[in-house]
Write a structure and sequence with these properties.
The protein contains 6 helices and 11 strands. With about 290 residues, it is an alpha/beta fold. It has a domain of about 200 residues: Nucleoside phosphorylase domain (Rossmann fold, 3-Layer(aba) Sandwich), CATH 3.40.50. Strands 1, 2, 3, 4, 5, 6, 7, 8, 9, 10 and 11 form an 11-stranded mixed β-sheet that branches. The longest helix is centred in the C-terminal third of the chain and has 23 residues. The radius of gyration is 18 Å and the shape is globular.
């Protein structure tokens, strides 16, 4: 199988011109059901797998998303790369609503989410110093620039629990931490992708200035939705361009993330757990 790009984002992304051989795939995982069925299609030489993060109709709030099932479903269907397309609030004057950010760092402010595949009966400690694949991020930025959008490369995404927006004090705190954008969905998604050795990058769509600018009104959901709607075609164009620019996944830092991560003695791992993870560790001698 060649390159397979998994795209997690809004349900409108896969309704793009030029996508052929479209089919819907219902996937079950050891972690339960993903947010929705996967939409599989072909774009040139690249296979695309689309997953609506909140389910079609935006019915699943951020804290209730089954992030483990979502990432596992993409991996199980052959994804070699994962692109997250996400709405965010800007924490920087220079990142205006409607502009795009390809972030390279994350701060986790969530509280109620299962954040690892290795949290029961098996212990693996995966490095997350640089959780975004730099090769994929570079390709995403290049693809985004081809849409003539203003693109900011690098920056820190602070992920809050949601579904509420930040208080003004929180927004100022995030700015003092040198964060660039604030969102509700990319954690633990980014960490789970690294645990499955999937190169991951985020295309963040700035929809507002959060609430840190004292001369602005607070975040207005109707304004956010208007900007999101206008950005659907731009996100589609980015995905289309990225499909032709995907780097070799074997060269990604993610490709051997599990090499030295496992600490549990193999003979002490229950057979069912060993069977579940054996495809991940097979190249390391399982």
């Amino acid at each position: 199988m060649g390159q397979v790009l998994g795209v997690i984002g809004g349900s409108g992304l896969y309704q793009m011109p030029g996508l052929s051989n479209v089919e819907e795939i219902v996937v079950d995982t050891p972690w339960g059901e993903p947010s929705d069925a996967l939409i599989k299609g072909q774009l040139g030489e690249t296979t695309l797998l689309f997953l609506p993060r909140h389910g079609r109709g935006h019915r699943i709030p951020p804290s209730a998303i089954n992030y483990r099932a979502n990432v596992w479903a993409l991996k199980s269907q052959g994804a070699t790369h994962v692109l997250s397309v996400s709405a965010v609030g800007s924490l920087r004057e220079e990142i205006a609503p409607g502009e795009l950010v390809v972030v390279d760092q994350f701060i986790d402010r969530t509280q109620r989410r299962a954040g690892s595949f290795f949290d029961e009966l098996i212990a693996a400690h995966v490095s997350m110093a640089d959780p975004v694949c730099p090769l994929l991020a570079k390709a995403v930025a290049e693809a985004a620039r081809s849409t003539e959008a203003r693109v900011h490369e690098g920056g820190t995404y602070v992920c809050i629990e949601g579904p509420r927006f930040s208080t003004r004090a929180e927004s100022h705190m995030f700015r003092s931490w040198d964060c660039s954008v604030v969102g509700m969905t990319n954690v633990p998604e980014v960490f789970l992708a690294r645990e499955l050795e999937l190169p991951y990058a985020t295309l963040a769509l700035a929809t507002d200035y959060d609430c840190w600018r004292s001369h602005d009104a607070s975040v207005d959901i109707t304004d956010i939705l208007a900007i999101l709607k206008s950005n659907v075609s731009r996100a589609q164009e980015t995905v289309r361009a990225l499909a032709a620019l995907l780097p070799d996944a074997a060269h990604s830092p993610a490709s051997r993330a599990l090499e030295f991560a496992l600490l549990t003695d193999r003979d002490r791992i229950p057979a069912k757990v060993r069977e579940r993870f054996s495809p991940l560790f097979a190249k390391y001698g399982w």
